[in-house]
Design goal:
- The chain has two domains: 7-70, no CATH class; 75-208, 3-Layer(aba) Sandwich (Aminopeptidase), CATH 3.40.630.
- The protein has four helices and eleven strands.
- With 216 residues, the chain is α+β, with helices and mostly antiparallel strands.
- The strands form two sheets. Strands 4-11-5-10-9-8-7-6 form an eight-stranded mixed sheet, with helices on both faces. Strands 1-2-3 form a three-stranded antiparallel sheet.
- 34% of the residues are buried.
- Strand 8 and strand 9 (146-154) form a beta hairpin.
């Protein structure tokens, strides 16, 4: 992602790189050699965290500590469910919705959310009684083939109404119109979320691990 279409967000060099901190904490290193690991550590300021999503747990370079690791399922929708009647209630979100988007994301924790996360790509929402009840959008754009569904979240009192499914279909429709295949990451133990994603056409592609590192 950081060396292709979203390279404008990259900070670092060929050894290690990270997303602009305003957008999120994601980072990667070329390998686990001393040079790349030192370069990765140099990208992190005191008290700051980075998230690495890899096929295995990533070791902490000198000066950093591992805060958390968790297994993920990387899922791909080769044949995504198309839009359904009623999905037109999904609205495109913008700068005027930024405060509500942040409040919802920070309360429900669909993944790391920063001040500029909403600018990764298009985010859609559903409102109830004037309130942002649920949202979903896009994040990683690796290469010219795939696009990631991300930020799927709903306030507890609005769950069970199918809002997440509607929003994911809306996001996927936008990807399909651009010739992109949807993918996403789910915590491997979240059976309810994985069941929803499977109903929408996603299938597990491979197991991944998120490693959260921090400079003390």
């Amino acid at each position: 992602m950081l060396t292709t279409r979203q390279s404008v967000l990259a900070r670092g060099d060929r050894r290690a790189w990270r997303i602009d901190p305003g957008f999120g904490p994601f980072a990667a290193a070329r390998d686990q050699g001393d040079e790349a690991m030192a370069a990765l550590a140099a990208l992190i300021r005191p008290g700051e965290q980075i998230w690495l999503v890899e096929t295995e747990e990533w070791p902490a370079p000198e000066g950093l500590v591992t805060v958390r690791t968790a297994p993920l399922a990387q899922m791909v929708a080769e044949h995504p469910m198309p839009l359904q009647p009623g999905d037109d209630q999904c609205i495109l979100l913008g700068d005027d919705d930024a405060a509500e988007m942040a409040e919802l994301a920070l309360a429900t924790e669909p993944g790391p959310w920063r001040a500029q996360t909403r600018r990764y790509g298009q985010f859609y929402g559903v409102r109830r009684d004037g309130r942002l009840a649920a949202m979903a959008g896009s994040r990683m754009l690796p290469g010219d083939t795939y696009a990631e569904v991300s930020g799927v979240c709903t306030w507890p009192e609005y769950r069970g109404q199918g809002l997440a499914a509607q929003l994911i279909r809306q996001v996927m429709a936008g990807f399909s119109a651009r010739g992109l295949t949807p993918f996403l990451h789910s915590y491997a133990g979240n059976a309810k979320a994985i069941g929803l994603y499977e109903a929408l056409g996603f299938r597990t592609r491979r197991a991944m691990v998120v490693t959260v590192l921090e400079r003390g």
